[in-house]
Amino acid sequence: MEHAAKVLKAIAHPVKLEILKILAAAEPMDVTTLCGHVGMDCQISMMSHHLAKMKDNGVLTSQKHGKQVFYSIANRNLLNIFNCIENCGDA
Length: 91
What we know:
The protein has five helices and three strands. The chain is of the alpha+beta class.
């Protein structure tokens, strides 16, 4: 249960959930590209912070190509959480 709590805490933010949805559709992506998908209010520094937190907690992995870092979902089974959340309203 500690691992589950750690993962849930790492993704418990609207932007982090949006990042997961974006990466689910097309990964890997760098910070700038992700920010472009999130929208005009996105700040690179805040996006980098969210990505680092999710990477530190095992939600994302990264691979460096030159100066750019590309992020991917560490375990795509995590995406099942979206189905669970959407179906919770049907109970």
